[in-house]
Amino acid sequence: MGKRQALYFVSPHIAIQDGISRDMAKMQALYFVSPHIAIQDGISRDMAKMQALSFVSPHIAIHDGNITIWRQNNLAFINEAMQTQFTIQADNISSILTMQPTNKVKQNEELAIDYSSEFINQDTFATRDELLKWVREVGRRLGMVFTIMSSNPGLNRRRTPYMVLVCERAGEYRGTNVPGKFETAKRKRSTRSKKCNCLYKLKGTKLGMDDDNVGWKLEFVFGVHNHPCFPNLEGHAYAARLTSEEMKIVEEMSNALVQPKAILTTLKKRDETNVAEMKTIYNARHRLQALEKAGRSQMQLLMTKLSEHNYLEDHRSNEDGEVTDLFWSNPTCLALGRSFPYVLLMDCTYKTNRYGFPLLEMVGVTSTNKTFSIAFAYLQFEKADNYEWALRTLVEKMGGSHSPNCIITERDLALIKAIALVYLTSHHLLCRWHVSKNILAKCQKMFKKEKEKWKRFETSWENLVEQESEELFYVEWDLMKRNFVDFPKALSYVADSWLDPYKQRNVSAWTDKCMHLGT
User: Fold this and answer.
1) Are 388 and 452 contained in the same domain?
2) Tens digits of per-residue pLDDT, 53-88?
3) Does 348 share its domain with 454?
4) What's the domain count of the chain?
5) 173 vs 179: CA distance, rounded Å
6) Which residue segment(s) compose the domain that 50 sits in?
7) pTM of the full predicted structure?
8) Which long-range contacts (CB under 8 A, 24 or more apart) does 371-374 make?
């Protein structure tokens, strides 16, 4: 018995041993498959008690009213679900585990259910994909996930094409909780798999060779799971895979700059059975971006897109050929800028891209007080040289049209210097919104808990910059200094940082001398 090979049942009477199919019904003599279990006349018998086992599936039987699981000379499968639902008792028979339900937990009836009947389909599937789709739809309804274990396209008529489908939990469990395994291995993170050696298996076979225009047939190899089915399939990678139609929706919505959360909501409203997660959407967008790049760098992809959409671009490179500054604009926007060259707004944003390059945006204003983008530029540094190059490139692309009446920016000293070098006749003004934000950041903390006085201070500042004559300005400024004499630091900051050096670029008494369209 030491070299005895265990039988592997594929039906109550048919078993596989050493690769040979044997019909147990024709075997008259006793044939031992374990120290106490033998086959006689096709019936499995427990020789210790001489009571027959009643098989309900190839591996599951009822013995003395208890569920008995038989497998190939090894302890039966034990997974987390079983451990919580059964008291496990094992005797000296290595291939038998007798499981009795505890008093607190009901016996899991699903373990004795043969799911093979759910996949009996006498119809012929037109294609391999149609068969796979049908199996996965039935599996989703039952709480199962199927993966392709192996397949053969049967090219060159070498063999009949086939496809073997197994439960996603087929295979050996790998994780940190396996005693004696992976205990000394260094892992980057603590991971574990869903594998539990589930033997559920289906096979799809083509009814002809690879070039024959015939259908596919489905048959089951083994129809019992060794684990309970899942009430829902959220968190299962295969179940969360997006279809080709859903991938197209993700691509279209991503191109329209829709947020991933809104994309996921759209997919779930479209299909109530969709179990995709946020990670699924991020992974799909990453794959789409990788396909779009096609091995090109970010800069190469950007240049290609600008060329495809007929954008005008210009750039500077260093000695190593690396792009340091990049300017681009749409021809339609440039044409609109030539029609309304009176007011030009400029603002530089920071930390908006992975490279940390400042993004300079140049905006025009129409006669109806509507703004429009004229051009953009990525700059290597926030220095006067970089700003000057961007502004001179804008002048060149605009075709040398006359300079704007006024240019409005925040207090960026390098940009102010570049404007003075490029636009010699234009008036430069400061954006009041940015000025107010700076005063808020610096002065509000000086008032501490005196919120009412801070509100009065803000109101006084707004009245001050809106004075339309120089005389009224100085009167309002004297009144403000008397009202807030208890806050000398706030008054000193306002005077030294904004009024003394920049009142001609910020107060209406001086800014109204040039046309700025109310900006």
Assistant:
1) no
2) 444 444 445 445 454 444 433 333 333 333 333 333
3) no
4) 5
5) 11
6) 8-108
7) 0.57
8) 371/345, 372/333, 372/336, 372/337, 373/333, 374/329, 374/333, 374/334, 374/336, 374/337, 374/344
